Amino acid sequence: MINTLKTFVFLALLTVLFIFFGSLVGGKTGATIALVLAGIMNFLAYFFSDKIVLAMSGAVPVSREEDPELHAIVEEVARAAGIPKPQVYMIPVEVPNAFATGRNPENGVVAVTAGIRRLLTREELKGVIAHEIAHIKNRDVLISTVAATIVGAISYLAQMAQWSLFFGGFGHSDEDRDSFNPLALIGLIVGIIILPIAATLIQLAISRSREFIADETGAKIIRNPLALASALEKLEAWNRAYPMDVNPAQAQMYIVNPLSGKSLFKLFSTHPPIEERVARLRALAAELGGRRF
Questions:
Q1: How crowded is the C-beta side of 202, counted as CA atoms within 13 Å?
Q2: Extents of the domains making up the chain
Q3: For residues 213 and 211, what is the distance between their CA atoms, to the nearest angstrom?
Q4: Is the pLDDT of residue 212 over 50?
Q5: Choice among 12-26, 68-82, 164-178, 277-291 with the minimum mean pLDDT
Q6: Contact 60, 90 (CB under 8 A)
Q7: Residue 285: exposure state from Cβ atoms within 10 A (0-12, 13-18, ≥19)
Q8: C-beta separation of 98 from 86 below 8 A
Q9: Is 132 assigned a catalytic role?
């Protein structure tokens, strides 16, 4: 509940930043243009992101005959979650990881790497699948798209302001010179630098909040938080030692960060620390009766 509230607070902050920056740069007209452009791009991404992500990751459909156990787990967890069974894909990579995509439960996709099938026990794999199905059930693709739309609009506004300053769009008419306020110009320059960074940090915070929510939702679906906690620890160790070759923009989709090393600062991370995620899952296990996998 707390992380859900955080998500909506972060989205509200993004909206406030956008409105403030839009009025600072170009009034209602500039803000509207930026929002429309960002909206068009993210509308297309929303409807085609699953195909794009699957193609970029090299994922291929896996049939029930090829992996009956994986299909059985996905079907079992989806039934417990109350959503249609997602499509099942395999990524031909030995580093263990997984992600989910799809704009709604009716178009859900769960993709796992070949390595994860060899590393995890059935219960641990079930925990990972539950986490990914939780993302689909909670419509996290939609939430991410909304956040990306606002962040994209703020970035467009920053670019518009930069070009306007470059070509002398501020304070060059006689009327503008008479009413020119140097503090407004300084505020605009600071906004161009700071606000896009602030918006990106809020977007990353939303991503981290959704990971906590997916952990909790997934663990409750299968009523086995410790299985997911164990899986996360194994996956984190492998991905630190053997980082995957993925586009950084895709990293937030995976259950653990597929890129090497830790972020220099927690604020710049797409994922919460594994230690914190595991601690929360263990606390949830105690609440549910301490079930062990």
A1: 28
A2: 2-287
A3: 5
A4: yes
A5: 164-178
A6: yes
A7: buried
A8: no
A9: yes
Strands 87-91 and 60-61: antiparallel
What is the C-alpha separation between 195 and 158, in angstroms, rounded?
8
Catalytic residue of the set 132, 211, 216, 236: 132
pLDDT for position 174: 46
* Cα–Cα distance for residue pair 188/250, rounded to 1 Å: 32
Angle between helices 140-166 and 182-222 (to 10 degrees): 170
The single residue listed with the structure tokens 């670019």 is: 159
Q: How far apart are CA 283 and CA 60, in angstroms?
A: 37
| Sign of the CA dihedral running 85, 87, 93, 95 | negative
Torsions phi, psi for 111 (to 5 deg): -125, 130
Q: For residue 112, what is the enclosing H or E element? A: strand 109-113
**What pLDDT, on the 0 to 100 scale, is given for residue 150?**
76
User: Which helix (H) or strand (E) element contains residue 60?
Assistant: strand 60-61
Nearest Cα neighbor of 56 from 111, 114, 104 is 111
DSSP 120: S
Residue with tokens 């059930």: 137
Contact 148, 204 (CB under 8 A): no
Mean pLDDT throughout 281-291?
Answer: 86
CB 154 within 8 A of CB 196: yes
Find out whether 95 and 113 touch, Cβ atoms under 8 Å. yes
* Residues 284, 216 contacting (CB under 8 angstroms): yes
Length of the chain: 293
Instruction: Provide the 3-class DSSP secondary structure of residue 242.
Output: coil
